[in-house]
Structures are given as C-alpha cells and as structure tokens.
Design brief:
Layout lengths: L1 E6 L14 E2 L2 E2 L2 H10 L4 E5 L3 H9 L19 H16 L5 E5 L8 H12 L7 E6 L8 E4 L3 E4 L16 E11 H5 L10 E4 L11 H14 L2
Parallel strand pairs: 1-4, 1-5, 6-10
Antiparallel strand pairs: 2-3, 5-9, 6-9, 7-8
Length: 230
Amino acid sequence: MHIALIPARGGSKRIPRKNIRSFAGRPMIGWPIEAALSSGLFDHVVVSTDDPDIAEVARAAGAEVPFMRTPELADDFTPARDVIIDGIERMEALSGQRVDRLCCLFATAAFVQADDLQKTHALLDDLPQDGFVFAAASYPHPVHRAMVHSPQSGIEMLFPEHARTRTQDLPEAFHDAGMFYWGRRDTFVARTPMFNPASHPYVMPRDRALDIDTPQDWSFAEALFRSRQP
C-alpha cells in the first residue's frame, strides 16, 4: 500500500498551534491533506500527532488518525525518520498490509499541489532502491559567491577560489525545501541517508518553496498564497 504520512506534533514554539492555525481560510494542515487526497495516489492519508486537537482537525479535513504518537516521538529533537518508521510499523500492524511506498508530507506544506505529488511519485519509479525524491528549491544567487562576516576577520568569502568567477559560469545550487519526501518502505526503515547519490531533487518554483518559521514568514506566505488563488 501507498501511504501519505503527515507529521504534526502539538508543541510548535515559534508559531504556537502552527499546524492548525488558520491559513488563507482553513487550518494549515488542511492544505497538504487536500493535495494528498486529490492526487489519488494513496491508500491512506495519515496524520501522526500527539495532540487531540490536531487529530480532530485532521479528521475533519479528510485524513485518518488511526493512532496517537507517543510523547517520546513528539519533542523538539525527534528526528523525522523516527516518526516515519513509527508510522510504517503502526500502519502495518493496524492494517495487516505491507507499506510499499511512503510520502512524508509536512503539515505546513500549503503550497504543495496534487500535481507535485503525482510527478514525484513517477520520478521514484526510475530510481534505484535507495533513492528518494524530495522537494528542493534553487538559491536565487550562486552560493559560491557567499560571504561571511565576523568582528575578528571581517568579510571573508566562503569559496575564495570563486572570487573572480563570473556568476553565469557557476553551477546552480539548491537546498532541501522541507516539504515532502518520497521513498520506499525498506529504504526508510534502513535509515538510508535521504540525500544520497541515488536520490533526485524535484525543484519547486521559488514562490512555492517557502519556509514558514516566524510570524513574518507566515504573513508573507499567506499573502502570497491568497494572491495565487482564483
């Protein structure tokens, strides 16, 4: 079976109740749930949470919450991989079926669309067993020209060998957008590193690859999101 697993713990610090706070007219978590359901890819769209309020909102949005996450897997330092493996094991035990593929889709990924999930699912078909497909975003300026500043040393280039390289001659660099990860069951369970030579980035448009960590991020993202609505 194919599973969408949406981790959504209740203890958000920087933006309280972030996962169920209203975003463009509905609880934030409702947007990725809608994308997963609309994609038609999943046997189960599951929210993994320790919070009864999040569970209630998730069910109202159409997701399943067949188990509650333990407190040990819901603190500030719990790795996402631990939550994913727990979700796989719990769903297999509850359903009596084996998970084949899983997409870990984050609760704040409001800009993810069903089409993104469909395209990345297809990309996984062509990858080796150890490969993952993950959402990525390109940097707006070549990272090879990045600088740092400290009182001791002043301005320094991170890559001084590229101080005189033309920007058009530098390769495009990208980063993990922190939105979703597709992989096969055994690859997740084996704790295979996400970013390995067999993995493939799915580069999102920059105006949909937003990190929402602060109230200012939230306000900007919500305004941009509303501007895109028909």
